[in-house]
Amino acid sequence: MTRTRGPLTRMIALARPRGSRFALGVLAGATATAAGVGLLVVAAWLIATAATHPPITALSVAVVATRALGVTRGLARYLERLVTHDAALRTLADVRVRVYARLARTEPIHRFRTGDLVTRLVSDTDATQDLLVRGLTPPLAALVTGAGVVTVATALLVPGGVLLAAGLVLAGLAVPLVAAAAGREPGRRRAAARAALSTAVVDVVHGAPDLVVYGAMPAALARVEEAGAELTRVERRDAGLLGLGAGASALIAGLTLWGTLLLGVGAVGSGTLGAVPLAVLVLTALAAFEIVAPLPGAAARLGAVRAAGVRLFDVLDTPPAVEVRPARPVLPERGLRISGLRVRYGPAEPWALDGVDLDVPPGRRIAVLGPSGAGKSTLADVLFRFRDPDEGTVLLDGVDITTQEPDTVRARVSGVPQDPHVFASTVRENLRLARPDASDPELWDVLERVRLASDVHAAGGLDTEVGTHGTRLSGGMRQRLALARALLVEPDLLVLDEPTAHLDPETRDAVLDDLLAATTGHTMILITHDLSRLDRFDQIVVMVGGRVVRRGAPEQLSALPGGYHAGLPSQSGHSGGPALCSR
Fold first, then answer.
1. 3-class SS at 34?
2. How far is CA 298 from the centre of its chain?
3. Is residue 542 a contact partner of residue 564, using CB atoms and an 8 Å limit?
4. Cα separation of 501 and 60, whole Å?
5. How far from each other are the two terminal CA atoms of the chain, in whole angstroms?
6. Please, what is the Cα angle at 557 between 552 and 560, to 5 degrees?
7. Residues 78, 80, 93, 314: is their CA dihedral positive or negative?
8. DSSP letter string over 382-401?
9. Phi and psi of 47, rounded to 5°?
C-alpha cells in the first residue's frame, strides 16, 4: 500500500505522530503573517487618517494596535519556528532511527555503494526536514491568511478583492505549480549529482593507497572534479529556476497592485470608496503578497525533495533477506543439525547450497573445506541469519533458527567474518562492541586467550587507538582482536569464515594455533580453503558446488588417495601456504 503513494506523501506521513505540533505551527505562522499584513493595513489607516488632522484620541487605538501587531508578529513567528522546527527535527530523528535500523539488517548495505549510501543516509534523509518546514507549513499558513486578506479587501471594494484573489492564486498556486513541474527533473539530477560526487570522494579516500600505487589517482581526482562540476551546473540551473519563480511572483504582485490602485482610484472618483479606505486597500494588496512569497521557491525545490524521498524509500523498502517464520516444535537434541539446506540468490541463479546436511554435536570442531564458490560463505550467512534457507532446516539445540529473531540467533551464534571490521576507536571499545558491560579484567582475560594481551600491554593498554580500519595493527593482530570479540560473547556456536585469509604462512599458522587453543571446549565451525592444522579438528567436511562431497575424521580423509582435496577442481595461484593442493 505504501509503495503506491508518492514519495512526498510518504515523507509527510512520517510526521503524522506530530500532526498537532505542525497544526500549531501552521496557526502560529498564519498569525504572524496576518499580523504583518495587519500592521501595514493599520499603518496605512493611521497615516491616511492623520492627514485629515483628527483629534489625537481618534488615533490612539490605531497607535496601540500598531504596537500590539508588531509584538504579535515577532512572537508568533518565533513560536512558529520553534514548534515546526522542533516537530521536524524530532520527525527527522525518527526517520534516521528507521534508516539505521534498516541498514542494521545488512540488505541495503549490499545493494548500494558506500558513498551513495552515505548520501542517502545524510542528505536524502535531511530532505524530510526541508519538506516539513518549507513545503508543508508555509502553504497551509498562506491558505488561512490569504482567505482572511481577500475577505477584508472584498469588504472594502468587491472588484479589488476579486483582483487580489486572482493575483494571490496566480502567485501562490499557478507559479508554484509551474516551478514544481519545471524543477522536477533538475531536482532529480541534483540528487543524482550529489550522490555521484559523494561516491567519487569516498572511493578516492578509501582507495587512496591503491590508487597511488597503480598511478590511478589523477584519473580518480578527475572523476571527483567532473562530479563536482556537474553538481555545480545543476545547482546553477536550480538557482535560475528559483530566480524565475521569484521574478514571476514579483511581476504578478506589481500588476495586481497597479490594478488595485486603478480600481480604487476609479471607485474614489465615483464616490463609492473614500480616500482612507483606498490607502488601506492598496497597502493590503501590497502586504498580501508577503503571504505567498516563499511558495515558488519551496515548490521549485520539491523536485529535489521528491528525488531524495525516492532514494530514501529505496533503502527503507529494500526487502529483508530474513524473516521470522511460524514457530515449530522444539526437538530434544543438542548441537547444530542442518538438513537438506538449499539456498540460491535468485530464481534463475544456480543453487549456492544444494542439499547440505551437517551435524555438529556440542563441543565438536568442524572444518568446512572447499574452493572458492563452493558455498562455504553462504553457509556462514545462513548461520548468522543474514539469509534464509530456500529449502531445508537449520536446528540449533532443536530450535529452527528461522523461527527466531535474527538478534536472538546472533546472541548464540557468534564468529569472525572473512574480513572483520575493526573500528577507528580503542581496543577496549572494539571489544565492548560484543559485550558493552564487560569489565577490564574480562577484556584482559579474553586477550590472553587469543595471545594478544602482551601486544596490547606494549602498545599502551586497552585505551590504545587502533586507527581507521585497524591500520595500526598487523593483520594477525586484527584477526586475533576479532576472535577475542567473538569469544567475549560466549556463544553456543562459533563460526569462523576464512579467519586466516590474506595472512602469510607464519602468521596464519600462529593465528590458527591461538584460535584452536582459545576455542577449546567450544562448538566451532571453521570455514577455510587452507589445509593447515586440519588434523586438529574432529571432522572435516569438503564442499564443491554447494554440495558436501566427502566428510570424515582428518585421519580418514588424509588416508584416501589424493587426501582432503581428492575429486576437487585443481587450484593454483594460492600464496601463503597450502590451499586445496596435494599434501
1. helix
2. 24
3. yes
4. 87
5. 59
6. 140
7. negative
8. HHTTSS--SEEEEEETTEEG
9. -70, -45
Report d(CA 38, CA 33) in Å as an integer: 8
Helix (H) or strand (E) holding 527: strand 523-528
Closest CA to 137 of 30, 32, 287: 30
Residue 544: its H or E element: strand 539-544
SS3 call for 271: coil
> Vertex 410, ends 118 and 345: CA angle to 5°?
65
Q: Which three cell numbers stand for residue 421?
A: 571490521
Q: Which residues pair with 466 in a beta bridge?
A: none
**Tens digits of residue pLDDT in 217-232:** 999 899 999 989 988 8
336-565 topology per CATH:
Rossmann fold (3.40.50)
- Measured CA to CA, the distance from residue 14 to residue 10 in angstroms comes to 6
Question: Residue 479 and residue 473: Cα distance in Å, rounded?
Answer: 10
Do 172 and 55 contact (CB within 8 A), yes or no? no
Distances (CA, A) of 75 to 68, 371, 545: 11, 71, 72
CATH class of residue range 2-316: mainly alpha
- Residues 162/281, Cβ–Cβ less than 8 Å: no
CB-CB contact of 347 with 41 (8 Å)? no
Cα gap 476→512, rounded to integer Å: 10
Cβ atoms 362, 491 nearer than 8 A: no
d(CA 482, CA 518): 13
pTM for this entry? 0.68
pLDDT tens per residue, range 299-356: 888 888 888 888 888 888 887 778 888 888 888 888 899 999 999 988 888 999 999 9
Residue numbers of the chain with a pLDDT score lower than 50 = 1-2, 571-583
Q: How far apart are CA 408 and CA 401, in angstroms?
A: 9
Helix axes 56-103, 19-50, angle to 10 degrees: 160
- The C-alpha atoms of residue 165 and residue 152 are separated, in whole angstroms, by 11
228 CB neighbour count, 10 Å cutoff: 15
SS (H, E, C) 117-168: HHHHHHHHHHHHHHHHHHHHHHHHHHHHHHHHHHHHHHHHCHHHHHHHHHHH
| Residue 481 φ then ψ, to 5° | -65, -40
Give the strand pairing for 413-416 and 539-544: unpaired
Take residue 303 and report the three cell numbers written for it. 523536485
* Cβ count near 8 (within 10 Å): 18
- Domains of the chain, residue spans: 2-316, 336-565
CA 51 from chain center: how many Å?
A: 62
* Residues 252, 168: Cα–Cα separation, whole Å: 8
Q: Is 567 exposed, middle or buried (0-12, 13-18, 19+ CB in 10 A)?
A: exposed
Q: Would you say 305 and 187 are in contact if contact means Cβ atoms under 8 Å apart?
A: yes
- Specify the length of the chain in residues: 583
310 to 6, 8, 118, 196, 298: CA distances (angstroms):
9, 9, 15, 16, 18
CA-CA-CA-CA torsion sign (534, 535, 537, 540): positive
* CA pseudo-torsion sign 454, 458, 464, 467: negative
Average pLDDT, the chain: 83
